[in-house]
């Protein structure tokens, strides 16, 4: 990686995006209100400038499935109502906890410009593009979020808001913590937990939730680096026999003498992981507080091959794309002929029949990495998580374009808690419903290089050539005398 680029990035002013810092004081928690002022006009949610307004949160009352039989014991139930019942509702062009950001796909001072950002294959990036991506990750890992903090206690442990328990976190680790928080067990006190719960996996919201998660992560890296053109690349792992990105040129090679550690030639070997000790948190009845817990672990290919015999193939992906149903009852990891369940990796990629004893497609990559990536709560610690999930998102995008589903095919009720159509995604603030990300990436302002429509490309070339001809005509005209 270019040393000068790293030096340049270290000089950039920190600016970033789960609890908005402005909403963590006791007063906000007691009032259950998170409507911070927009700095542009000093009004809550930028209301004076028409950016948004402070409104009551309307939580869906659609019934959940039977997988979580408890009630009133988890801060994530009816998100975000345990913490806040009033948040900013932003106008069409804007988003963010105070409506300061542009909605996905919009840019400019007033968020009126539209642009489609293109995510590319990491192995096809130029050297400069690849170095910039790696440098941005390192910058995000070392930059404290100016906008967000993490909760280090439950609402009950915070004495119902009167004793706030929050902590600063880096931009990168903010998202590691969010992935932990959305998938953690329910703490019932005295080392008792409910394990059969996950607000982002093993059910319909798996793909929309991770789509939103990646967009928010991408957006925060853009703000941190001051580069609105940045996009997260993907790693196309179809038909591979080894980890192409597990080299010091990319995401870190294998240590020469300690196989489950990264090579010291990669700066990723010096990263510290967080939120990997779920049993300790459960036994102590506390949340992950972002404390460093050791280096990234990774030992690709040395996994349990009885559970995951090989990396996914093109045929596996194509079969999943052929499934016409996005989701089927019981809407969890036991669903048959479900595109979501097959792509997530709980169903056989040759038949679509649930088989939880095997890990395929998405799950297979996590198991194959045999380390930090292989544990759900801490998997985002390994930056390969980003490349992997961006490619999974591109497969989701292929399915959406091939089958063009109506939004009402997404289950409205009786799914595992957190996964109904109108449930607000845990733990995002600003708040988003699951259904808001069950639509084409093009409507969210991004696309994939290998999915770009040929017609659009030809049209773009045509317009470019038209512009060239027009400019040539101007050049051929005699210049006017003053």
TrEMBL record:
InterPro entries per the UniProt record, alphabetical: Di-copper_centre_dom_sf, Tyrosinase/Hemocyanin, Tyrosinase_Cu-bd
Listed EC numbers: 1.14.18.1
CC per GO annotation: melanosome membrane
Cofactors required: Cu(2+)
PROSITE patterns: TYROSINASE_1, TYROSINASE_2
Membrane topology field: Single-pass type I membrane protein
Broad class of enzyme this protein falls into: oxidoreductase
GO molecular function: identical protein binding; metal ion binding; tyrosinase activity
Claim: Transferase is one of the keywords in the record: no
Domain Tyrosinase copper-binding: 201-218, 382-393
Biological process per Gene Ontology, one example term: pigmentation
Record's signal peptide: 1-17
Keywords: Copper, Glycoprotein, Melanin biosynthesis, Membrane, Metal-binding, Monooxygenase, Oxidoreductase, Signal, Transmembrane, Transmembrane helix
Primary location group: membrane
Highest taxon of source: Eukaryota
Subcellular location: Melanosome membrane
PANTHER family membership: TYROSINASE (PTHR11474:SF124), TYROSINASE FAMILY MEMBER (PTHR11474)
Family affiliation: Belongs to the tyrosinase family.
Record protein name field: Tyrosinase
Annotated organism of origin: Callorhinchus milii (Ghost shark)
